[in-house]
């Protein structure tokens, strides 16, 4: 019944699919960015407590969510790679590492910029900030381990093990604001009894999250093409594709 | 040489059919490997002193660096002792699998058919006895030099015992992953430190709690839970990483 799913394990199929849809995903992401930023920076009202400063939330929160989401994607695809030896799963993990690190860095920097006027400090060693910083180190360690091992296939498998082991940090980051006394705001949106935020701010936030997701997806598709070509550069389908369609 | 492998009882020349396979039980595998490791480490115990000396020297450097004022030393003591212990363990982890990888023993273990996770667990236990236990035993003395009150010293030793155990297990994962990397020591630190941050927070926090007349039990219980989790899960990851390292072949 699910035979069509096997196509997603085939590099030429995924390559062709990526080539076909990635421009549209990129355009959609741009449109959502424009709309979300307009709704958030122009249409949404100022906060009763923080004034205009809160508007950085429309970049900070999506970036933070993406940093955790991308690591989860990386860990799951690494697990798939270890268990089923699916090459494309490793391509996904490799393609996600650098952008995940970028999202984490962006979350930390925007959080720091937001913290200066509101908390009075650029940095606090409280639970959530510390563990998000640890997440950045985990991404960098993954990239470093991959590039340090000379034998590419062994490097891929070793890095996959590292990614799976490091998944423990993600729940820690998410629940850190509940478990520890934290300066960082506790959960406002992912709560059992629904989000606590007003729709005029919640809608732009969700639009920005969708924009970030599509941006990640676009980046993933492009980087996957590079990864597939790297691994399959001597394969016949690559040669045929260059000869017929010019890559 | 002492690898616990299935061995064939010698068949007599006259009657070859008397040969039979003797199966080595799991406990035998574990205890043989553990005994071999401990014997090797006690034979060259001079090398094993290095992490301990590093620990003592680093802790000694802090009073020299920040000044000998007793209250200040007592305030920073839990963190200083804990971080120094962490760094000493990291230093020692580098050579955990290196010697065996070099002379081919690791390959024999992978090929032996015995559970590699069990063998790795035995190695890590021996490594903890060789490296972590001396740190734990000398930590009360260092606590005294850092002006910690007497009632704190027991918690210091217990928290370090639990913390260094977890660190040995998680660090062994890193050591196995960086098996084939030249100068893998720094990369090992980069891999292990993110995962050891919670241990550091809970461990140093428990000592701090006792110093502030609070109950450390919660934090120590969390550390103990970490030991149990690491004992269960780390050997699997270590074995997988060792297989990758051996397979890449040098």
Give the % helix of chain B: over 70%
How many β-strand runs of chain B? 2
Q: Total number of helical segments of chain A?
A: 8
- pLDDT < 50 runs, ≥5 residues of chain B: none
The mean pLDDT of chain B is 88
- Biggest interface in this structure? A-B, 27 and 22 residues
Structural class of chain A: mainly alpha
The percentage of residues in β strands of chain A lies in under 5%
Structural class by helix and strand composition of chain B: mainly alpha
Q: What order do the SSEs of chain A take from the amino end to the carboxyl end, as H and E? A: HHHHHHHH
> What fraction strand of chain B?
under 5%
Biggest pleated-sheet summary of chain B:
2 strands, antiparallel
Explain what the structure shows.
Chain A has helices at 11-43, 57-84, 87-119, 127-148, 152-165, 169-179, 199-231, 236-245. By secondary structure, chain A is mainly α. In chain A, helix 2 (57-84) crosses helix 5 (152-165), helix 3 runs antiparallel to helix 4 (127-148) and helix 4 (127-148) runs antiparallel to helix 6. Chain A starts with 10 loop residues before the first helix and ends with a helix. Chain B has 250 residues and is an all-alpha fold. Chain B has helices spanning 26-43, 45-66, 70-93, 98-103, 105-111, 116-145, 150-177, 184-211, 217-247, and strands spanning 7-8, 21-22. A two-stranded antiparallel ribbon of chain B has the order 1-2. In chain B, helix 2 runs parallel beside helix 6 (116-145), helix 7 (150-177) runs antiparallel to helix 8 (184-211) and helix 8 (184-211) runs antiparallel to helix 9. Chains A and B meet through helix 4 and helix 5 of A and helix 8 and helix 9 of B.
């Amino acid at each position: 019944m699910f035979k069509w799913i096997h196509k997603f394990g085939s590099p030429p199929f995924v390559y062709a699919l990526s080539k076909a849809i990635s421009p549209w995903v990129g355009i959609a992401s741009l449109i959502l960015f424009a709309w979300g930023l307009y709704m958030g920076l122009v249409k949404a009202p100022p906060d009763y407590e923080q004034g205009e400063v809160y508007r950085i939330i429309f970049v900070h929160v999506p970036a933070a969510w993406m940093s955790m989401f991308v690591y989860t994607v990386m860990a799951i695809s690494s697990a798939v790679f270890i268990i089923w030896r699916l090459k494309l799963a490793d391509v996904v993990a490799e393609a996600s590492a650098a952008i995940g690190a970028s999202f984490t860095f962006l979350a930390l920097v925007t959080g720091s910029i937001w913290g200066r006027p509101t908390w009075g400090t650029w940095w606090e060693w409280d639970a959530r900030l510390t563990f998000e910083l640890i997440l950045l180190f985990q991404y960098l360690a993954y990239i470093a381990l991959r590039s340090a091992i000379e034998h590419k296939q062994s490097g891929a498998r070793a890095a996959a093990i590292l990614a799976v082991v490091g998944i423990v940090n993600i729940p820690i980051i998410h629940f850190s604001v509940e478990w520890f006394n934290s300066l960082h705001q506790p959960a406002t949106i992912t709560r059992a009894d629904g989000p606590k935020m007003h729709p005029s701010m919640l809608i732009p936030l969700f639009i920005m999250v969708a924009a970030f997701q599509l941006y990640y997806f676009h980046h993933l598709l492009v980087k996957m093409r590079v990864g597939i070509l790297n691994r399959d550069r001597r394969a016949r389908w690559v040669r045929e594709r260059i000869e017929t369609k010019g890559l | 040489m002492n690898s616990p492998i299935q061995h064939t009882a010698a068949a007599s020349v006259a009657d070859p059919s008397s040969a039979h396979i003797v199966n080595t039980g799991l406990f035998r595998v574990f205890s043989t490997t553990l005994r071999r490791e401990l014997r090797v480490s006690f034979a060259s115990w001079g090398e094993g002193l290095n992490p301990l000396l590093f620990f003592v020297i680093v802790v000694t450097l802090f009073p020299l660096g920040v000044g000998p004022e007793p209250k200040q030393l007592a305030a920073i003591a839990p963190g200083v002792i804990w971080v120094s212990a962490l760094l000493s363990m990291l230093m020692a982890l580098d050579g955990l699998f290196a010697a065996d990888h070099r002379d081919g023993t690791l390959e024999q273990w992978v090929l032996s058919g015995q559970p590699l996770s069990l063998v790795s667990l035995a190695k890590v236990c021996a490594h903890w006895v060789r490296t972590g236990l001396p740190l734990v035993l000398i930590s009360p003395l260092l606590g005294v030099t850092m002006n910690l009150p007497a009632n704190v010293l027991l918690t210091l030793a217990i928290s370090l015992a639990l913390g260094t155990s977890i660190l040995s297990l998680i660090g062994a994962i890193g050591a196995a992953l960086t098996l084939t990397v030249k100068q893998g020591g720094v990369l090992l630190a980069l891999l292990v430190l993110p995962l050891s941050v919670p241990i550091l927070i809970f461990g140093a926090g428990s000592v701090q709690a006792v110093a502030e007349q609070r109950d450390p039990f919660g934090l120590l219980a969390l550390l103990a839970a970490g030991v149990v989790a690491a004992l269960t899960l780390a050997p699997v990851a270590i074995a997988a990483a060792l297989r990758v390292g051996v397979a890449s072949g040098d």
